[in-house]
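hey so i finally got around to running the thing on that chain from the lab meeting. sorry it took forever, my laptop kept dying and i had to restart like 3 times. anyway pasting the input first so we r on the same page abt which one it is
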Amino acid sequence: KANLSQKEPQILEFWKEKDIYFKINERNKKSKKYFLHDGPPYANGHIHIGHSLNKILKDFVIKSYSIMGYSTLYIPGWDCHGLPIEQQLLKELKLSKRHINDIPTFRKKAREFAMRFINIQKEEFKRLGVFADWENPYITMSNEYEATVVKAFIELYEKGYIERDKKTIYWCPVCETALADAEVEYKDKVSHSIFVKFKLVKFPDKLSSFNNLHIVIWTTTPWTLPANMAAAVNENEYYSIIKLGDDHLIVAKKLLSQFDEILKIEPEIMSEIKGEELVNSEYIAPLVDYLDEKHKYNRKVIHTDFVDMTTGSGIVHIAPGHGEEDYFAGKKWGIEVFCPVDESGRFTDEAGSLRGKFIFDANEEIIEMLKNKNTLLSRGEIAHNYPHCWRCKNPVIFRATEQWFLKIDKNSLREKLVNECSRVKWVPRSGYERITSMINLRPDWCLSRQRYWGTPIISFYCKKCGRVQKDFQLFKKIADRISREGSDFWFSEDIHNIIGKDYKCECGSNEFEKEKDILDVWLDSGVSWYNVCKNRENRYPADLYLEGSDQHRGWFQTSLIPSVALNSVAPYKTVLTHGFVLDENGRAMHKSLGNVVSPQEVIKKYGAEILRLWVALSNWNEDVRISDKLLLIPIDMYRKIRNTFRYLLGNLSGFDKSKKLSYDEMLDIDRYMIYKLNLLIEKTSSDYADFRYRDAIKNISDFCIIDLSSFYLDVSKDRLYTMALNSKERLSVQSAMYDILKSLLVITSPVLSFTSEEAWQVLRKEVNSSEPESVFLNDIKLCDIPKNNEIIDKWEKIIGIRNMVLKEIENKRKDGLIGSSLEAKIIINCDEKKYFFVKLNIEDIRNACIVSQAEVKKISSDIKVEVFKADGEKCPRCWQWSVNIGSNKKYPQLCPKCADAMERNSKNE
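ok and heres what got predicted. didnt touch it at all, straight out
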């Protein structure tokens, strides 16, 4: 019985006690390297089923390449800094970000928190049977690693890629920090949808005959209207002037019918004007009266290319402080970046009477203000895809702040990134299109975060003149100190202790302020190639990155950018992606749905081996599904493979390895099976090299079920159980079984690691103790047997005849003529061409068909099989029927073959 959940820990202990992973690496250390670089999971919880899929796939790669003769050191990593740990720690401490007064103590607690989950996850990954250098992982919070991150930042800074600027970026008002593209996810959200009129006070003379002239804008974010600084038209489009009561409104001609429908009116069209003629017109922003004095002035109409004619009014409200496109439009037209919203999403004093109000809560009040000003034309609601924070799941905003950026278009970096992607092998190929489309559209990378748990941005400013100090030699000395001490001193020490009391700015001042922001955790993990592949293993670029498909916008991209910027090369040669794990109905797993499948539960119930086989059988390039019902498929396959191993081991028990026959001495059928085994080995090696684990394990299963259980093992029972113990016939099948079992255990070991090891240890104990200490200390290799086309052709023909015979036997069994196939006598009728082949091989055909008697007759037609009741009596030892039962008087109940076997066995006792 398998009892996997009980036996697997014993095998894990064996691997640990015998230091098998170390021995694998020692054995292969002079071989060609194959380096899979581990994308670091986040150290903030128990592993989930997606982690299992990822780590097991990586284990398949490491183990398969190892048995193919490569040196495959695998260094696991953990991502330790950042918001998720901060938030969980704040929850445990019952604090908010604003109440963190002792930053060094908070960072110490965060480090302990991360370390706790690294140790938990490490044991959970080991339980999956994953081989790795668990005692020497890379950890992004280690002194050495933090120093690497800082050095990479300095080198990027020196090369001109780093810039501090005020830009509009994603901002989470709940987490109170900037976010990068990779930290934003889109979900449906219901928002306000309003049309607002802005009164024109300066406009083209041709419109002077229209009184109360307004442009109309549409927005789904009323809270951004206090920050309105311009209105944009498309200069190439035409706009209609319509009469509505005492007002004249300007709306895009192409959107007029939509606008009429929303307002439920049939307005009178008075005239039209081209967009370019409206540029530089001026209007009064509807909420300008509520703002501080500094911002009470008229706004301008500008042109932008992004004004489209699909929705809205064809005129866009521009708030450079709250929109990326708005920001660039404002920069182009010299418009102020006005952002009256603080880090917690509340209006500042600049917003006048709205000060202190949370932006989303203020929407209703702002709509009421517009109503009171008689500028609101329509209000409704719209469900749309809206950006949310990846961590707290709340809606994010765009907010203009001073941040540190990695410039994507500096030194033609964007073009270089796309070019490097074309040199990488993407599996599946669609990964190339996906990542390059993202690179082509991505903004500059916002690197700064307004948090405490992370790698510090090593920079400081002159308090007198505000200049950012760019002393790269000093920065490198600070990085060296971080490698010795860690980065906590940056948060605890006075700036002069760090840079020296005599340090001065160009302006002459020696009063400085440290940068308080930390680096984006995506830069931490994004330079892991620098720390691990380049510095530690000297295997850069890595041979393989293997992660979930979401990492095209995450780690694949954030690793690519600094690598190409610094070294003009992608950090990986091949990128392999897998999908997400869903429930059996194709739904994402959520606690609220009660459909979460944890790896711990699966292991406890079925064993890690079943989880590994589920991964291998999955079409993991796409999203995969799991449930108890779906696990029945790998459970059934596992049972059949395990039973094959058990049967082979059972029949090798007591086999004397010294009596193993050479291939030349073996019977034809056994040589044929070795040939079939070699075909499987070749195919499996090819499948493993190309990550086709499903094909590999299905071919192994088919070999066990079809080639072995249904044919070879069945056919060989007579030789194993009735022939003399040391007869050539029996030794031949055992010799073949020995090679078949050894090879099967080796080629199956990357997937069924526990079972292959368990069976290997039985093989060593009961058959040959001189075999390597572990199944993993072997290479995949072909059996050294010359290909014999004559034998192959012979047995392919015999199997063809056997299939015909078995059909006829089954028909006779249904008719009640016979029960077991051994009760049958077959007559093969065939033409002259086949007659001589059948006659020559009639005994092999009889054995292959597991019948008691076989004859051949010549006829004019092709081939025909007849089945009759066998002649004679049944031998109680071999169950074959014979007309010569009792011909050996010493054994009156036995057939001649069994009597001979008994004689030979008695002589060897």
